[in-house]
From TrEMBL:
The keyword Magnesium does not apply. It is found in: Cell membrane. It is a multi-pass membrane protein. This is Branched-chain amino acid transport system carrier protein. Component of the transport system for branched-chain amino acids. GO terms for molecular function: L-isoleucine transmembrane transporter activity; L-leucine transmembrane transporter activity; L-valine transmembrane transporter activity. GO terms for biological process: isoleucine transport; L-leucine transport. The chain crosses the membrane at residues 7-31, 43-66, 78-96, 116-134, 146-167, 187-203, 223-244, 274-295, 307-328, 334-355, 367-387, 407-424. InterPro entries: Brnchd-chn_aa_trnsp_Livcs. The keyword Transport applies.
Length: 431
């Protein structure tokens, strides 16, 4: 195996694992239960939003320069830094990283070792995170070589066993528009939120591995993205199928977690609870390690190393450990408003990034982001505080509002208007 191929596989496995948090496990089986015999349509809808969008975000950011802040640089350097900082704090020490420990406790430790306090789980979990993340040069290799294979093997065993011996006969779909439901469920994973930040750590790792030519790195990122994409697509698709074979046993009255645990126990018997517990723990640990490293890489970069990588990751681990004691539900409730406001902005920047070289004026980016921010903020203010309800009623009439893309049309229209204004101003200067 030559060095380049080996590096692509290891980094691709690591990228898959960082994206594939424990939360990603619960969406596909639930969708499969809803889809039943129409699971292929649901699968297509889901895969279009995850993994297509997050991997697209990684590749686009690499092409724009490879640093996390490059995705938003055409809106403004300060904007890009603020957006990146808010995003990494939210998916890092303030929400996603603490949730990984809390989820490990609730799904695995509390079931296998009842009576264990949450603080004990968090302490052990974040000591492990600190060990894996402390040395910046080895983080990606540790995730890709040692943590990811175990996670992938467990999930593939579950999927293959279900294909060979399905849980039951599939029910008819209980949703009328199952493709759109799949699209919405994939969107809810919010994996694209950290795409630009993930690119930063991947590019940094490739540089350390000796790939110093930018064009070569972009090509490698595409191959790395393909590896991660295939793993995500196979696992997501397989778990949707697992849920579909249980669609006559489970209904929408069951929670996503109940369906995940129940289907795995049907497939593996009494060993199922232990197997899924290990899978959840590995998914949580890889995400915790990856996001802590991303926080260190990004924050040390934008401060020009005034804040070093090691102090940042240690602070991330310490703060995450304290916040994890709030439990999963408390963390979700606190983070949803921020995530719901920031996520659409990241999405519109990814879409604009696809056409970056064809968009002449930065004002187009600014207009699209402004409209997206306003629409998202109105939605959040109404859902959280029940204000601006009149505006929300208007927003609900917009195309694709049912799948969370209500910001898309305003972004396109406002971006076009701002771009036209810039074009007119440009012509006047020439005249």
């Amino acid at each position: 195996m030559n060095k380049k191929f080996k590096d692509i596989i290891i980094v691709g496995f690591a990228l898959f694992a960082i994206f594939f948090g424990a939360g990603n496990l619960i969406f596909p089986p639930y969708l499969g239960v809803l889809a039943g015999t129409e699971y292929k349509k649901a699968m297509l809808g889901f895969l279009l939003t995850d993994p297509v969008l997050p991997i697209l975000g990684v590749i686009i950011t690499a092409k724009l320069g490879g640093a996390a802040e490059d995705l938003g640089k055409r809106v403004g350097n300060n904007f890009s830094k603020v957006l990146g900082t808010v995003t990494i704090l939210t998916i890092g020490p303030l929400f996603a990283v603490p949730r990984t420990a809390a989820t490990t406790h609730e799904v695995f430790v509390s079931k296998v070792f009842p009576g264990t306090p949450l603080w004990v789980t968090s302490l052990i979990f974040f000591i492990l995170t600190a060990i894996f993340v402390f040395n910046e040069t080895g983080v990606i290799d540790k995730i890709g070589k040692y943590l990811t294979p175990g996670l992938v093997i467990i999930l593939l065993v579950i999927i293959v066993k279900c294909i060979v011996d399905p849980i039951g006969v599939m029910n008819v779909a209980t949703e009328n528009q199952i493709f759109l439901k799949g699209f919405a469920e994939g969107y809810q994973t919010m994996d694209a939120l950290g795409a630009a930040l993930m690119t930063g750590i991947v590019v940094s790792d490739l540089k350390r591995k000796g790939y110093l030519n930018e064009q070569e790195r972009v090509k490698l990122v595409k191959w790395v993205g393909l590896v991660a994409f295939l793993l995500l697509a196979i696992i997501y698709g397989g778990l949707i199928y697992v849920g579909a074979t249980a669609s006559k046993i489970y209904t929408v009255q069951y929670t996503r977690v109940d369906i995940l645990l129940g289907t795995v126990q049907h497939i593996l018997g009494s060993a199922g609870k232990f197997a899924i517990g290990i899978a959840v723990s590995l998914a949580c640990l890889t995400t915790s390690v990856g996001l802590s490293a991303v926080a260190g890489d990004f924050l040390s970069g934008i401060t020009k190393n005034k804040l070093g990588y090691k102090p940042i990751v240690l602070a991330t681990v310490f703060v995450s450990g304290l916040i994890s004691l709030a439990g999963v539900e408390g963390l979700i409730n606190a983070a949803v408003p921020i995530l719901s406001t920031v996520y659409p902005i990241i999405m519109v920047l990814i879409f604009l990034g696809i056409f970056d070289k064809y968009i002449k004026y930065d004002m187009t980016f600014k207009g699209a982001v402004l409209a997206t921010f306003v629409v998202s903020l109105v939605e959040v203010l109404n859902s959280k505080f029940k204000i601006l309800e009149g505006f929300t009623d208007i927003i609900k009439t917009l195309p694709l509002s049912s799948v969370g893309f209500e910001w898309l049309l305003p972004a396109i229209v406002t971006g076009a208007i701002f771009g036209l204004i810039a074009y007119i101003q440009d012509k006047r200067k020439i005249a």
